[in-house]
Amino acid sequence: MQQSREYAQKKQAKSGVINRQPRDEEIQNRMVAVVDSENHLKEPQLLREVLKGLDRSSQVLLQVARTSPDEPSICKIMDKSILRESERAKAKPKKPQTSTKELEVNWAIDRNDLGHRLDRLQQFLEKGMKVEVLLANRRRKRKATVEEAENTLKLIRERVEECSAESKPPDGKILGEYLLVIEKKPG
After folding, report:
1. Which among 10, 73, 21, 69 has a CA at the least distance from the CA of 47?
2. 28 φ/ψ angles, rounded to the nearest 5 degrees
3. Are 130 and 183 in contact (CB under 8 A)?
4. pLDDT tens for each residue of 48-89
5. pTM of the entire structure?
6. Which residues does residue 63 pair with via DSSP β-bridges, in sequence order?
7. Of 2, 47, 93, 130, whose CB is crowded by the most CB atoms within 10 A?
8. How many CA atoms lie within 13 Å of 176's alpha carbon, on the beta-carbon side?
9. Of 2, 180, 11, which is closest to residue 101 (Cα–Cα)?
10. Residue (of 13, 19, 8, 25) closest to 60 by Cα position
């Protein structure tokens, strides 16, 4: 038993895997107390006896709590496939799914065209994206009146409210460059 423990320690040192719980021969204590499926602690047993009773092809003895060397280690018999899945889930970094989309809108945009842009805005928000709406004048295009610009802004804000999204304070001025940053409300 001592020889297989030393082998397991050398193997662990070579592979560089240190941040996992000790299992099977990697467990340092000679005595182990096994937690059953109903989370009841069984009487302490010799580690080698517990390992003999395992189906090594599908089960692993995992140390779940570290104890002092003179006390039995608290261990649990786990299915290898379940353990592998949980380790993969921990290893995968969580990527934030928030990407940013940008919509450019002319102050003097036709109502029909604005409707299409607002539909795209709604689709992006439903996918959980952050949307930057840039309102600006286009070169060589008709200049909008203040009334048209305010109406365009009003229609955008109404759609944002329908989508239960929120807009950060705008940057810019009406009939100039005006940036709205819109995100879906959390929850």
Report:
1. 73
2. -80, -35
3. yes
4. 888 888 888 888 988 888 778 788 888 888 888 888 888 888
5. 0.48
6. 75
7. 47
8. 4
9. 180
10. 25
